[in-house]
């Protein structure tokens, strides 16, 4: 029966996964970001929100005698966004500004010489989802990512009892998870 609460509760493993039990880790490129280690450590604590990635596979449509034949296409990876809590040392925001400025400078419209190759301006990030007992239940790794958007921070004389936040959006090459790539040592 569809309205049996006992069956529903027994099917919901460990009372369901909770969206507030997560951790994001990421290393900033060391060739431009001088305080990257500090920013990386702080990011783990200041990353207020993130997403577990979705997955999309495109389709190839081939017309045949007035009908459309649909074939599986290539995988597409959507942008990934995190929200960061800002504190008064601006360590994380400064690191993102330096990273993006190294990719393309504000004034000269040029890339920093230490970012000559794509691997020199990209980084990886990991999102770990935890269960209510503190055990890791799901891991995702974003590979070859770089920031494409650093949102503004709104300032407002009427914004009392709040802390500044901003969003950072990344593009990346692909993601792996502890269930999609069992060969990876990242998910030990």
Keywords:
alpha+beta; seven-stranded antiparallel β-sheet; 188 residues; globular; single chain
Question: Helix and strand layout, with pairings?
Answer:
Blueprint: H1 5-11, E1 22-26, H2 36-46, E2 47-49, E3 56-64, E4 67-76, E5 80-85, H3 91-103, E6 123-130, E7 136-150, E8 165-171, E9 174-177
Antiparallel strand pairs: 1-6, 2-5, 3-4, 5-8, 6-7, 7-8, 7-9
Helix pairs in contact: 2-3
Structure description:
- The mean pLDDT is 89.
- Strand 3 and strand 4 (67-76) form a beta hairpin.
- This protein has 188 residues and is an alpha+beta fold.
- Helix content is 16%, strand content 36%.
- The protein is built from three helices and nine strands.
- The strands form two sheets. Strands 1, 2, 5, 6, 7, 8 and 9 form a seven-stranded antiparallel sheet that branches. The protein has a two-stranded antiparallel sheet with strand order 3-4.
- It is globular.
Helix content: 10-25%
Count of helical regions: 3
Kindly state the mean pLDDT as a whole number? Answer: 89
Strand-pairing-aware structural class: alpha+beta
Q: Give the number of DSSP strands.
A: 9
Major β-sheet annotation: 7 strands, antiparallel
Radius of gyration: 21 Å
Summarize it.
The protein has 188 residues and is α+β, with helices and mostly antiparallel strands. Helix content is 16%, strand content 36%.
